[in-house]
Amino acid sequence: MTAAQAIAHCSAGVQMALGDLRPPRVLIGRLIGPLVKRLALGNDAPFRPNSPTAPALVVSDARDLEQERTRLAGLIDRFAAGGAAGCSTHPHPFFGRLTPEQWAELMYKHLDHHLRQFGV
Question: Domain boundaries in the chain?
Answer without folding.
Answer: 3-117
